[in-house]
Write a structure and sequence with these properties.
- The protein is mainly α.
- The protein has one domain.
- Helices cover 65% and strands 6% of the residues.
- It is built from seven helices and three strands; from the N terminus they run αβααββαααα.
- The chain has a three-stranded mixed beta sheet with strand order 1-3-2, with helices on one face.
- The longest helix has 39 residues.
- The radius of gyration is 16 Å and the shape is globular.
- It starts with a helix and ends in a 6-residue tail after the last helix.
Length: 181
């Protein structure tokens, strides 16, 4: 499977839909967000610019190392971010921002953020499984669960066991040849 070709086709399709990839470090508001996240998470999120790809509307803000990332990483990440593009198209920028950042709470019980990210991470897991099977999803498990339960996304969901069960059920459904969606 030529993952570079898959990535190129996905990128071409995204660009045809008006999606643009922008270097996060070069955009002033992304640098401001990085500072604010560092403050509100008491330093727990201090790698926003360098490790996290962020979507707002049809702009996908990529990390400075984006061109050097492996084709698999770029492909899987772009598939994840295209879920967010679809969410913005469905709900609109302002409602998405309000839901993602504030509802019902900005941290601990950020159910809307958790649900939106869960949908995108389901795509991450689905694509990882398609490319690398159970071994790939097993390697990804702790990372994905940690995104929900740590300061990475502002401790959006404190229920680690619930996230582990969600992840395991998703992988089991993929292994059984059925998708949860």
């Amino acid at each position: 499977m030529d993952v570079e070709a898959l990535y190129a086709a996905l990128l071409a399709d995204a660009e045809a839909r008006g999606v643009r990839l922008v270097s996060k470090a070069r955009v002033w508001h992304q640098r401001v967000i990085a500072v604010l996240l560092r403050i509100v998470t008491f330093g727990a999120q201090d790698v926003y610019i360098d490790r996290y790809v962020t979507t707002i509307g049809r702009s996908i803000y990529v990390t400075p190392d984006w061109p050097e990332r492996s084709a698999i990483d770029r492909y899987v990440t772009l598939r994840h971010e295209m879920v967010h593009v679809h969410q913005f198209e469905t709900y609109g920028v302002v409602p998405m921002a309000i839901a993602y950042l504030l509802l019902p709470l900005p941290a601990i019980f950020a159910w809307c953020r958790m649900a939106l990210e869960r949908e995108a991470y389901e795509e991450t897991v689905r694509v990882s499984h398609a490319l690398g099977g159970r071994a790939a999803t097993d390697r990804l498990r702790d990372h994905v669960v940690r995104q929900f339960t740590s300061g990475s996304y502002g401790w959006m969901w404190p229920f680690r066991r619930r996230m582990e069960r969600w992840y395991d059920a998703l992988v089991d459904s993929l292994e059984a040849g059925r998708d949860v969606n």
